[in-house]
Amino acid sequence: MIFFEVFPRFTKNRIHGIMKKTGQIKPEDKENFMNQESQIPHKRRVRYKGKYPKKFEEKYKELQPEKYKDTIEHVISKGNTPAGMHISIMVKEIIDFLEIRPGQVGFDATLGYGGHTKAMLECLRGQGHMYATDVDPEESAKTRKRLAEQGFGEDILTIKLQNFCTIDEIAEEVGGFDFILADLGVSSMQIDNPKRGFSFKVDGPLDLRLNQETGISAAQRLDTISREELAGMLDENSDEPYCEEIAKAITDEIRRGNHIDTTTKLREVIEKTLSFLPEKERKDTVKKTCQRVFQALRIDVNREFEVLYDFMEKLPGALKPGGRVAILTFHSGEDKLVKKALKQGYKDGIYSDYSKDVIRPSAQECAQNGRARSTKMRWAVKA
Ligand SMILES: C[S@@+](CC[C@H](N)C(=O)[O-])C[C@H]1O[C@@H](n2cnc3c(N)ncnc32)[C@H](O)[C@@H]1O
């Protein structure tokens, strides 16, 4: 039974042949064996065209990292992130800075795949406790299970399905934190999964919510937004240079009764709007514009600036004296907000020290993980 689960591609006749050759089965056992095997429900492998699977749902090996370790290592060694996984960024820099000691209490504001949480938990050596939040019910349930299987259960880790801007409530409940990490934005699992709508590269519903069970999708937001508001949103959230043109094209399209409810439809509107550009610069500009427009919509539907502002306001009150915080940001809007709050906190004597300059991932890390390229780390120590 287990054999068939591990090697589903072996046919019953091939297995029978091998076992017969190696003397593991006698001819009279054949009938028994065939009868037994016919009771195993046959699960067909996902079919895909070509040598390698291209679509997210076809990558059945990458989606089962525990079972196909070699494939995972191979994908990572090629500088890619396996489907359904997230490679944690700047782990060494974060751990070096946080100076975690056994017995301390910590908070991971953005659990994600749990890579950072696990690295921090290891520093506790079984003594102390960590709290972690995430708003994504789908991925945080998987991470809870994965971490529990690796020995980080409820005795040492409490995972809460709530927004990190509720940090004040958790801190009050537990008496403050010795160390805090926030690794902002979205995880690779969310970006890669087409049904979440985060990527313009694959077709899917234009959703972009971190929690698909609450709020409204990006498609619903576009249905009612005015041209002026949309242009302002694209400009404020991602400095989009073509914000006016794109806002006009999107709102005109919707007024004509054509809902922009898929990632492909939005990408096509952007492509059409930028069709006036000279051919040699068009492809690159369309790609960058798509990235900015999707980012702006994501920030809007998840109220990312509002919750980050709230978090930064509550942060000093959640840290114990001497407590340390590290924050990873991925675009200039986030970084400006974090930088300003830490600088002001230092001026006001709330923090005894803070990062005057950003820390960037090493060139080696960026080469191994392209998604690290835009990362900026900032930190502070509570007075
Ligand atoms: C970049 S990923 C974190 C990856 C994680 N550090 C790891 O090592 O796997 C960001 C995560 O934060 C979550 N998130 C984003 N905004 C949040 C918020 N306001 N409150 C709680 N979780 C949030 C996202 O759902 C996502 O899972």
Automatic annotation (TrEMBL):
Broad EC category: transferase
Catalytic activity reported: cytidine(1402) in 16S rRNA + S-adenosyl-L-methionine = N(4)-methylcytidine(1402) in 16S rRNA + S-adenosyl-L-homocysteine + H(+)
Q: Which Pfam families match?
A: Methyltransf_5
What's in the keyword line of the UniProt record? Answer: Cytoplasm, Methyltransferase, rRNA processing, S-adenosyl-L-methionine, Transferase
The EC number of this protein is 2.1.1.199
Write out the GO MF terms. Answer: rRNA (cytosine-N4-)-methyltransferase activity
Main subcellular location:
cytoplasm
Q: Mind telling me which InterPro entries this protein's record contains? A: RsmH (IPR002903), SAM-dep_MeTrfase_MraW_recog (IPR023397), SAM-dependent_MTases_sf (IPR029063)
**What's an example Gene Ontology biological process for this entry?**
rRNA base methylation
- Entry's Gene Ontology cellular component terms: cytoplasm
Location within or outside the cell: Cytoplasm
Sequence positions that bind S-adenosyl-L-methionine: G114, G115, H116, D134, F164, D183, Q190
What biological function has been recorded for the protein in this entry? Specifically methylates the N4 position of cytidine in position 1402 (C1402) of 16S rRNA.
Entry's family note? Belongs to the methyltransferase superfamily. RsmH family.
| Entries under NCBIfam families matching the protein | 16S rRNA (cytosine(1402)-N(4))-methyltransferase RsmH (TIGR00006)
Protein name, as recorded:
Ribosomal RNA small subunit methyltransferase H
Q: Which organism is it from?
A: Blautia luti
